Amino acid sequence: MTIPESLAPHFKQPLLKTPFHDRARELSQMDSFIAWAGYTTVDVFTAVEQEYFAIRNATTLFDLTPMVKYRIAGPDAVPFLNRLVTRDIVKLKPGRVAYCVWCNDAGHIIDDGTVFRLGAAEYRLCTAARQIDWLLDSAVGFAVDISEVTEQIAALAVQGPTSCAVLKAAGLHGVEKLKPFEIGYFSLGALALTVSRTGFTGDLGYELWMTPESAEEVWDALMAAGRSRGIRAIGSQALNIARIEAGFLSPNVDFVSAEHTIRTGRDRSPLELGLAWLVDFEKGHFTGRRALLAERQRGPRRQLVGLDIEGNKPAHHALLYAASNGAREVGNVTSAIWSPTCKRNIALAMVDAPHFKAGSTVWAEIYLNRELVWERRMSRAQVVERPFFSPDRRRATPPAEF
Fold this sequence. Notes:
CATH topology of the domain at 14-65 and 153-245: Gyrase A, domain 2
Number of helices: 8
Shape: globular
Oligomer: single chain
Strand order of the largest sheet: 11-12-13-10-4-14
Largest sheet: 6 strands, mixed
Number of strands: 20
Distance between the termini: 55 Å
Order of helices and strands: EHEEHEEHEEEHEEHEEEHEHHEEEEEE
Structural class: alpha+beta
């Protein structure tokens, strides 16, 4: 007897498929898939360069369904979240989204994510990795209900300078009125959509949230509406270039959750990651507050910064030194690219004090493989402000017509 693929034992299908999987498979020319939070997702559809330039010049679709989603509701939803995260959730109004981080008692980051306020006492927390154990442990003593709803919600990122025009052409009238980090409710024919003006590209963009049953119909409608505006599906490699240009951090790349670190000194605080603006010491107690107060008083020993590096060879995993002779190590690169838009060799790096101050110079040790021979280069790098790329269209309301 032949077992249908949908009923095959899990050990033969260890990864789940998103509701957009069949559409993505049809467009995949490279057959390049990676695992994300238990799902199989596209790494590259055609070519990274084509997909990247679509982000900056047209409209792109990126399957966000594997993003882990939690529903947090109940009379104590606000005090629970305010105890959990470092920023003041009381200030988050219904219909708005906020980026946030949460820490352990030592003030080291457990994870980052976005909080959606869907109602007076209903929130949605989105993270890249599962955090149900930490959330439930943190909820002891609060009248709050926490449930994972990842498989109940399909999500699609629609990003790029023509994204608003494509959404309007598809029938989402009024979407141009959404302000950054605002939530709106729309209909695409008979399909209900929740739309947030959020994204991971640092460009104009939106994220669409829907039922899994609506996924393919929404995908098809957007592809049809965006045909004249160069719409293209993208994978995670192109998205990674855009997020580095925007100065955004990626878990397990720029930091590791304090719950997963093994070696001493590898966990990071929000102050070390340049996220001090997310920490509100005036709102009252939250997990990690005492440790972060002490760190603020003594000053961080290291900090994640932007680097502008000489040359055009990305400094992947490079060690950083105080001088060109490599005498004293002062940090390491966490993310690096040659930026096609900025025409700069840029990187995110963890740098020791006092070298992380803007304008400081460090030296990156870059290794190049040329015809199976490794060459070592010491390249000058200057500490610069993030983001590297931040176009006005990202914030304009309504967006310009492209």
